[in-house]
Amino acid sequence: MEKTHLMVHHGHAEPTFSTKVIWRTFWILLIITCVELTLGMFVAPHFHNLKIMFNILYIFLTLVKAFYIVAEFMHLRHELKNLLMTIVVPLFLFVWFIAAFLWDGNSYKNLRNDYDPYKKEQSHIKAEKHETEAKKPGEVE
Amino acid sequence: MATAVTVEQKWWSGGRSPFNIEYGKLMMWYFLMSDAFTFGAFLISYGTIRFSSNGWPDPNIVFSSFPLMGHTHLPLVFVSLMTFILIMSSVTMVLAVGAGHNNDRAGVIKWMIWTIIGGFAFLSCQAWEWTHLYHEGAWWGSNPFVNFDGSKASTNFTNFFFTITGFHGFHVFSGVIINIIMLIMAYQGVFDRRGHYNMIEKAGLYWHFVDLVWVFVFTCFYLF
Fold first, then answer.
1. Which of B129, B147, B182, B198 sits most deeply, having the most CB atoms within 10 A of its CB?
2. What percentage of residues in chain B have a pLDDT greater than 90?
3. What is the DSSP letter of B58?
4. Which value does ipTM take for this structure?
């Protein structure tokens, strides 16, 4: 048994945590976050009609960040493929999960707007501005 | 001995673990996978409700405050600070795990302390943000913010925001507690007596998962 363990380790070249890779991953995550924030703060507010394109871009950048956290920080990239598969394959359920539910929500909105025009009308009435301006006692400055 | 090792390992033919990983670590991975589905269900229900609404508040307006800056308009700056803190604490956690691999007790202790400080810093930021929103009149069942088009918003936004960031904050809190326990155990030399620092790795997996969830919460609430 001892021998098998030794062989496994030698055969697989037990990965060590290299400080260089850690810091490279850190910079990648930081830069992507900065890009997302720049887009969210300064670029996207000027292009309201392109909101959906920005959202797709955010999703893509988020998935890149998730990949780097799981692959490098959680070290999954350096584990055996058997292990990786048992964790990653079930996550593909999310593809159906997200698509089905967002589709459902959208369809519900359209149906309600079609069959309940009063509610649709109500939902577009401008709110009088009061609550946001009101200062509550003890407000943090 | 070395001649027996071939490039093509037959992992499923018996005699060795097909995952080549310690039992506790494997179970931590599966726990995190189930936790991913929990968070996924939360975020997808948020998405479903948002898709079914005619209007939704603008995050650039809602999240535009910064501590001690008064009534300035600094959209998303505070949340980027929180994100940076959490990424930083993830880095110090990997460094602790790396030190554990080398059985370097002093290194583990040093980096665990930094990770715990990062965790507390994040929780403090969140406490400030919640307090600030609360004083603006936002809470479960109450939403002072208007939609993108200026129409009155329902309370769905605040309900989801406080529930999901609260659930994430609770994860961060338990992560900090786990990290403190790991620090005490490392300090007492428990892992040196065991001869390995696998527990640090398991705590690290949990901590990185918390960071991972934040990446998605950040996108869903602050960017969309």
1. B182
2. 74
3. -
4. 0.87
